[in-house]
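User: My advisor, Dr. K., asked me to get a structural model of this assembly before our group meeting. I'm new to this, so sorry if the format is off. These are the inputs:
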Amino acid sequence: MSGADDTKRTAPARSDNRARGNKTGPSGGAWFLLAVAVLYAILFAAMPELASEALRRLGQLARHIVPILAVVFVFMLAVNLLVGRAWITRHMGARAGLGGWIMALAGGVLSMGPMYAWYPLLSDLARKGAGAQLIAAFLYGRAIKLPLLPIMVHYFGLSYTIVLTLCLAAFSILSGLVTARLATVIPAAEPPRRQAQGDS
Amino acid sequence: MVKQRSQRRGMHGSPMIGRSRFRQTFLRTASGFLRSLPVIAGVLALTSLLTVAAPPTVLAELLPLQGVLGPIFGALAGSVAAGHAMTSYVLAGEFLSAGLSLATATAFLVAWLTVGVAQLPAEAAALGLRFAVWRNVVSFALSIATGISVAAVLSVLA
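Assistant: The format is fine. Below is the predicted structure of the whole assembly, which you can bring to the meeting.
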């Protein structure tokens, strides 16, 4: 499982210049953020109360997501340090076996916070060879919320909760299989590599 | 040979991650992570705006959730709505109390958790546009299928 020589390998990337890390201007993400900021500015001029409320809500959400992003970063670092591309390709690649499906589903069930907090890690894994089917299964499996199961039982009853949970587990695999037939994952551009120094 | 081995292993013979390699990997991970932050921040701002401008209850009122097509419109409302998972449980419970079908309430709940219209830009940036669109389309269809399946299984069990 060691990824000792992983940093020396080149990850598959998008064919355009952006994917190769050759971009010089702001990224698409920066433009997207700018567009949202402009939308907020327009809203502040037209409907200040709505914009203020949205901003207050943004503060609440940000406080909630920052710790989760920290956890995601630690996961990413651990994967980059300890898990090699060969291991990911073998166990989580396009030909992954039952273990890969179990890992994807368990990861989805255990992952916390909003879905978008996990995109950087998934993009990282995809760059290292994780299959589209397992990424889709991970994202669908997130619908099973272990900490919230008691609340679901309270609202809908035990039999509903059991049937829904089993359906979600089965459909997460179906979601992975169907999505992988329709599309492949094209991960975000890999950060430009620095010149190795010392004992790398 | 001995020197090479000593470079690869720590003082006690355990595999060692060199400080320089850790630093290099840390910087590379941080760089990739930081580059994804603008999209996440944008989605966060968009989600906040959506929850304030179009609350799920308003969305549910706007859509014809009664009838045979209820699960489809329920999934549609769940796809556009955003917020904490527990809110979806509460709303789905309210839908049931209001007399909507179990399939509709379930489709709404599952679509809320698996489909993300507001998150699409972030998903497309991280995993590719084609994958993001198809995954959301498949999840939308499966949320309707889940709603119908759960209602059918429970009616058989009952």
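One thing worth pointing out at the meeting: Residues 3 and 82 of chain A are 5 Å apart (CA to CA).

User: Perfect, thanks a lot.
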